[in-house]
UniProtKB/TrEMBL annotation:
It comes from the Bacteria. It comes from Lacunisphaera limnophila. Residues 10-245 form the ABC transporter domain. SUPFAM superfamilies: P-loop containing nucleoside triphosphate hydrolases (SSF52540). This is Putative ABC transporter ATP-binding protein. The keyword ATP-binding applies. Keywords: ATP-binding, Nucleotide-binding, Transport. Belongs to the ABC transporter superfamily. InterPro entries: AAA+_ATPase, ABC_transporter-like_ATP-bd, ABC_transporter-like_CS, Metal_Ion_Import_ABC, P-loop_NTPase. GO terms for molecular function: ATP binding; ATP hydrolysis activity. It holds the Pfam family ABC_tran. PANTHER family: IRON TRANSPORT SYSTEM ATP-BINDING PROTEIN HI_0361-RELATED (PTHR42734:SF5), METAL TRANSPORT SYSTEM ATP-BINDING PROTEIN TM_0124-RELATED (PTHR42734).
Length: 303
């Protein structure tokens, strides 16, 4: 077995990050993830999600602890193109005159020599990546002339062109329509089947159980990490989100005779999470969810 046959591993070992102003954004954070998985990185604003991504991308250096990717240091892993980052759109200068094709080709830089002249293989891989995200028809378009969801798809294509086994996605569903959301989720599932490891930051709780098989719950440190069903408990989420979430409990039913069950709802006012009596997630895979999304997308198309 060669190193590339082995499932890729991401280990965050007792990582503490302190910014130059003295702010400790992450303290003693630890978790380990293995390829073939979609993992949600979940926490409130300011909980350290971006900081953790920065540590994995070598933008900030931990003052304690280490991040290992495929058993290698972050620097070595970046050099070997093991990690790709799909940014939040806000971080990019949209007036910069680059085309969709140029952006996707950036994913190939690590494979080119210093002249950065793309070869036939680079063009083939970039083309394939654009097709996979459904953006091939937009290749000539200036990047600033795309919708929010289209921009996200282009950055995802860049990550695909990079052929990285670990993909970090920073809030990929913020500001995208349901159709783009389901396109991205579908693509992430295919990549999972191909052995990639995706770490997806989000503060939109409701979507997490639908597509993440694992969750890292953070608030300046790792509060819990593991399978979604085990981590997404009422107790853990209340600890992570505190007063941010609205909390409802229904002990009585007004439409039928009460059968003794109680239901708790935790909601960020986007999509509610429903917990049963034991405090565990009531349904982690919503039955027929895809069908509902398709229907909604069709309805939007018909408008
Ligand atoms: N460059 C910086 N210098 C100093 N403090 C910072 C810096 N960047 C972030 N912080 C602080 O570190 C903490 C964690 O911030 P971080 O951006 O990692 O959170 P986040 O979970 O990504 O938040 P959001 O969901 O709002 O993007 C916050 O208190 C923030 O103010």
């Amino acid at each position: 077995m060669t190193a590339t046959d082995r499932p890729i591993e991401l280990s965050v070992n007792a990582v503490t990050v302190r910014y130059p102003n003295g702010q400790v954004a992450l303290r003693d954070a630890s978790f380990r993830l293995v390829g073939g998985s979609i993992c949600g990185l979940v926490g409130v604003n300011g909980s350290g999600k971006s900081t953790l991504f920065k540590a994995i991308m070598d933008f900030v250096r931990p003052v304690q602890g280490e991040v290992l990717i495929g058993g290698q240091s972050v620097r070595a892993a970046l050099k070997a193109n093991l990690v790709a980052y799909v940014p939040q759109s806000e971080e990019v200068d949209w007036t910069f005159p680059v085309s969709v094709w140029d952006v996707v080709m950036m994913g190939r830089y690590g494979y080119m020599n210093f002249l950065r002249r793309p070869g036939a293989e680079d063009r083939r891989v970039a083309e394939e990546a654009l097709v996979r995200v459904g953006m091939a028809d937009f290749r000539e378009r200036q990047i600033g002339e795309l919708s929010g969801g289209q921009k996200k798809r282009v950055f995802l294509a860049r990550a695909l062109a990079q052929r990285s086994r670990v993909i970090l996605l920073d809030e990929p569903f913020t500001g995208v329509d349901v159709k783009t959301e389901s396109t991205i989720i579908e693509l992430l599932r295919t990549l999972r089947g191909e052995g990639h490891l995706m770490l997806v930051s989000t503060h939109n709780l409701g979507t997490v159980p639908e597509f993440c098989d694992q969750v890292v719950l953070i608030n300046r440190t790792v509060l819990a990490a593991g399978r979604t069903e085990e981590v997404f408990t009422e107790a853990n989420l209340s600890a992570a989100f505190g007063g941010v979430l609205r909390h409802f409990r229904f002990d009585e039913s007004t439409v039928q005779k009460h059968d003794g069950r109680a239901v708790t709802l935790l909601t960020d006012d986007e999509r509610p999470l429903v917990f049963g009596k034991g405090g565990h997630l009531e349904y982690s895979r919503r039955a027929d969810h895809e069908k509902v999304i398709e229907q909604r997308a069709e309805e939007e198309d018909d408008k």
